[in-house]
Design brief:
Elements: H1 3-34, H2 40-90, H3 104-144, E1 149-153, E2 158-161, H4 163-169, H5 181-185, H6 189-199, E3 208-212, E4 215-228, E5 237-247, H7 249-284, H8 293-323, E6 332-334, H9 336-346, H10 348-354, E7 357-361, E8 369-371, H11 373-389, E9 396-404, E10 407-414, H12 445-455, E11 459-465, E12 469-477
Parallel strand pairs: 7-9
Antiparallel strand pairs: 1-2, 1-5, 3-4, 4-5, 6-8, 9-10, 10-12, 11-12
């Protein structure tokens, strides 16, 4: 008999007992009204019969009530156990099992529940094993990388770090995993640099000089954002960062050797070049002797090439000073017009040669500058020289200055063929020359100019449009204004 049938039987039994009690009560009332109350014996028997019937009726009602109360309890108990088991499974307690064998109706349900829990436990065990295996595999890969590498989440907590990174940071693994990089940065200068660069990224990414194994080493840090598409999402979200350090010590040493070599050669070349120019000057002196037209032409060609070679060696020396960090500034109070006039006078001969007209734009009122006038004048001279060479014959060039809010701008503008947008970001690189350019040059002028301006915490930028010319702008901030 199933539970539903038992419940129906209990309810039917209870209802039958109530009906029986009502019927007996009615019959008792009828008997009391029919039997003669004056008969003492009959009255006594009647009272006993009524008492017995009443006791039997009350007993039946009590039995029905008990049956009615116990039957729902027998149903609710397995349901409660089943509900509790489902909650345990939802809380990842896959060891939970049900024993409802005493209730035939729920026995099959409990068996199905136990099979499900067992399979979930097996799946969890296998999945956890796979995760642990994968984690160990990834840790092995990270530690096998010869370059230092650090992984952080969005909260700047360190998720993984390889042995190379621990070595250069002089830290132990158990003290950094799942720890805040910001907290570690309070006592570790290298980590402080990483956190600062992550929070305030800049275009400049200077190499790190670190002493590792009693040796001075250089590392270039690269910050790689990690993004992932969550389940059910369509757009990727940031989940952290990877800091990768590349050991550039070997390249730094080669670069230093190159800089030393160029510096030495440049110094050595200046002496014979100066001697050549002096000899040419003596040849041109008519007291030594007259030169025929062909000899004068050869002398002029030798002089031009010697001057060009001397200019290139000067640029190389300037470059080596910048690369070696030996660039020294000797600032003094200077009017911008003085720098502009210097550049114009230095390029006067070249402008006359190309028939180029130089126009000056200068405001009535402008602040003075506190700069190394020799360096900034060199920059303006170089920019003006380029503008003249890249202008059309008999063209014009504008050089000027203007006052801005907490900034002074000096600019040189030509109206030549301009620079293709694809090359504008590369023209300040060393030795770079725009493809197809016929104008001779070393490719160092703009690079050195940029270094000189940035040494003053300034900026050198270019605005150019093909067919309309170029405009180079030097911006110096208020730190270098004269008081």
């Amino acid at each position: 008999m199933n539970t539903k049938a038992k419940l129906n039987l209990g309810i039917g039994f209870l209802v039958s007992m109530i009906i029986l009690l009502v019927v007996l009560s009615v019959m008792n009332l009828q008997i009391l009204t029919v039997i003669e109350p004056t008969n003492p014996v009959a009255g006594l028997m009647l009272q006993r019969a009524l008492l017995q019937v009443s006791i039997v009726g009350v007993a039946c009602i009590f039995a029905g009530i008990m049956l009615f109360m116990l039957l729902p309890t027998s149903i609710n108990k397995p349901i409660r156990e089943l509900t509790q088991g489902i909650l345990e499974i939802a809380n990842h307690n896959y060891e939970k099992r049900l024993d409802l064998s005493s209730n035939k109706e729920f026995e099959s349900v409990s068996e199905s529940f136990n099979r499900m829990a067992e399979r979930l436990a097996e799946y969890r065990a296998s999945t956890l094993a796979d995760i642990l295996s994968g984690k160990k595999y990834l840790e092995a890969i990270v530690n096998s990388i010869t370059e230092p590498i650090i992984g952080l989440n969005n909260e700047k907590e360190i998720l993984f770090i390889n042995d190379e990174a621990l070595n250069i940071l002089n830290l132990r693994r158990k003290f950094v995993i799942r720890k805040s990089a910001s907290t570690i940065a309070l006592q570790n200068q290298i980590m402080h640099r990483f956190v600062t660069d992550l929070m305030n990224p800049t275009e400049k990414n200077e190499p790190l000089k670190i002493h590792v194994d009693d040796k001075e080493s250089f590392f270039q840090a690269k910050y790689i954002p990690i993004r992932m598409v969550e389940t059910g999402e369509t757009e990727s979200q940031s989940i952290g960062y990877v800091i990768l350090l590349k050991n550039i010590t070997e390249f730094k040493e080669l670069d230093s050797a190159k800089t030393t070599f160029i510096s030495t050669i440049s110094h050595e070349l200046k002496t014979p070049i100066s001697a050549i120019l002096m000899s040419l000057q003596l040849l041109e002196d008519k007291r030594v002797g007259e030169l025929n037209p062909e000899q004068e032409e050869l002398s002029k060609s030798i002089k031009e090439n010697s001057e060009r070679l001397l200019s290139i060696t000067g640029e190389l020396l300037n470059m080596t000073q910048v690369e070696a960090g030996k660039l020294q500034l000797l600032p003094k109070v200077t009017k911008p017009i003085e720098l502009i006039n210097y550049a114009i006078n230095a390029n006067r001969v070249q402008a006359d040669k190309f028939g180029c007209q130089i126009e000056v734009e200068y405001p009535d009122k402008i602040d003075k500058l506190y700069v190394d006038s020799e360096k900034i004048a060199w920059v303006l001279t170089n920019l003006l020289s380029n503008a003249i060479r890249y202008s059309n014959e008999n063209g014009r060039v504008i050089i000027g200055a203007k006052q801005g809010e907490d900034v002074i701008e000096m600019y040189v503008q030509d109206f030549g063929k301009g620079i293709d947008p694809s090359y504008q970001s590369s023209i300040f690189d060393r030795y770079f020359r725009v493809p197809g350019t016929k104008v001779q040059g070393s490719g160092l002028g703009l690079s050195i100019s940029k270094d000189f301006v940035e040494a003053h915490n300034g900026k050198l930028t270019v605005e150019s449009e093909v067919g309309k010319g170029s405009r180079f702008v030097i911006r110096l901030d208020s730190l270098y204004f004269a008081i």
